[in-house]
Amino acid sequence: MIKKEAKVSYLKIGSLRVLCVLALKNILFLTKDFRVYGWTSPHVKQSLLANIKISIYSMANLYSGELMKSIDCRGQQCPQPVIQTRKLMLAEPGNVLQVLVDDQVCRDNVARLAATMGYGIDVEETGQMIRLELSPGEQQEKSHAATAASGPRVLFIGSDQMGSGDAELGRILMKNFIFTLTEADTAPDAIYCVNSGVRLTIKGSEVLEPLEELADRGVDIASCGLCLEFFEVKDSLAVGRVSNMLELVNALEGAGSIIRL
User: Fold this and answer.
1) H helix or E strand, kind and range, residue 110
2) In 10 A of CB 227, how many CB atoms?
3) How far is CA 98 from the centre of its chain?
4) Which of 25, 94, 162, 189 could form a disulfide with 174 if both were Cys (CB 3.0 to 4.6 A apart)?
5) How confident is the model at residue 9, as a pLDDT?
6) What are the φ and ψ backbone dihedral angles of 123, each rounded to 5 degrees?
7) How far, in Å, CA of 127 to CA of 57, rounded?
8) pTM confidence score
């Protein structure tokens, strides 16, 4: 009994710390709203009401012994709210979760992830505060490994940009894709970079860290030797190895699935 009470007290102390951090963050958001809209604005009143409700709800859960897991993703850009929510789902299976966002797109993305993972979704919106309560249900997410075609999964990167159009946006999208790839359930078996895609694997690349993480997980990262020579960066290769066209042809022909970027 003493050990159980001590454990509950410890959990409550930890939750109080989380609640204090949440309260401080709420104050920062309210201060920003005050400056933009003024003290008497209906928007500020709605925001204040939402923060009070969140605090009361958290305190009620705390003292009832129902320590709901909560993350505050306000101010975060896509895909971080989805990534953080998924991490919490995997770390706390079977628990009711609370996610705070301040953007309609983030709300929809988190809700879509929750539905895929088999969670029930309750959304409450007050001003710019969006609260999602996610209740676990039957697991619906399918294993990609179980449905993959026979053969290795190959990611073929033909550019340092994702999509066509604005070059700067394309590089941002590619960076987000590579970072998000490290959060996927199953990584590709091999990544082949050609043309300007080899710039992702050389010194100074903004995605060296996630590529190194993928390499540590056993992903074979190969950059076209001819492409490295063309851009005069062969000596700057920082992750993976040098490949050739014959190997690339054989890899694509023998692949069970190919993702082209």
Assistant:
1) helix 104-116
2) 21
3) 16
4) 162
5) 42
6) -110, 130
7) 17
8) 0.62
Contact 62, 110 (CB under 8 A): no
Mean pLDDT of 49-72: 59
Amino acid at 136: P
Tokens of 121: 């979704």
Cα gap 53→67, rounded to integer Å: 16
The pLDDT tens digits for 177-188 are: 999 999 888 899
Task: Give the count of alpha carbons within 13 A of 111, CB side only.
Answer: 14
| Distance from the Cα of residue 45 to its chain's centroid | 32
* Measured distance CA(58)–CA(81) in Å, rounded: 20
Q: How far is CA 4 from the centre of its chain?
A: 35
Query: Which residue type, as a one-letter code, is found at position 58?
Result: S
* Cα separation, 21 vs 252, whole angstroms: 50
Q: Which of 74-78, 176-180, 210-214, 240-244 has the lowest mean pLDDT?
A: 74-78
Pair of tokens at residue 16: 């109080």
